[in-house]
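Sat 14:20. Reprocessing the chain from the morning session after the first attempt stalled halfway. Input below, unchanged.
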Amino acid sequence: MVTFYYVFSIKNVSNGEGRCELMESSMIDALEMTLPLMKEITGQDIQLSLFDREKAIATWPADNFSIPGAVPGKALDRSNPALQTVFRVMDTGVKNESMIPKEVLGTPVHGIATPIKENGVVVGAVTCGYSMEREEKLRDSINELDGNLKESADRIDKINSEAAALVEELNEIKGVTEQVKTVVNKASNMVKSIQGNASKSNILALNASIEAARSGEAGKGFAVVAAEMGKLAQVSGNSAKEISDSLKEIIDAVESVIKAVEKVNDVAASQAEGTSEVTKNMEIITKSADSIAVLAKPI
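Finished this time. Tokens:
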């Protein structure tokens, strides 16, 4: 048998002299003296029970739950379901751990039963149950956080994809507007050509009118034609000028659209890059939350 000795200082009140004495104790006696300190040391809500091979020696209950089966001084009954773990530990000499669900005791409890051995022989057992309520709340909070982070990451990823698609569409719009600008410039050049031809036609009509006047009566019919040609050239010139002004307005508008598209394109590209970085950070945070959730799981 393993023997424990505890040193006690005894002081004689009458003469003030003191002496030290040794008190012999077995493993179970030692545990009976020290186990009550465990709750204070750990700072957790725990229940401790001490057994020898025949009976329950002592129980130190928890504040918020009570594990049945341990009645101090009462002989152990192998038919009692609540004591099966205690008997199994003492019979096998192997520690046992298990989770007691919240539905049983009102709070989730992690139970540990450990055999007490002296000189290799099992002489009893110690059971410890501690509340996992805080751990469960932490795990639930982490799981909720993990779910929210994954949902946020999915949404950000969607925004990132949409921003990238927007950049592509804006580039297409920019390409189309560039094409429109090119076509309008061609039309503007054609109108300038029409204006030039109208101006030449007007000069020719003026010259024809002069020559018709010189021809006298013979040139009167030609003078009428020349006058009409002059009027037509003038109308064509005016119409060409109006078209040219309209085309210039279109070109200015197209250039404004191109500039606006370029600005929006820059913003969209910046957003796509920013959301990509946020997505990477969210992935890191989600992985950390997953790791914490694993650590928070009960053994």
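The first strand starts at residue 4 and ends at 11.
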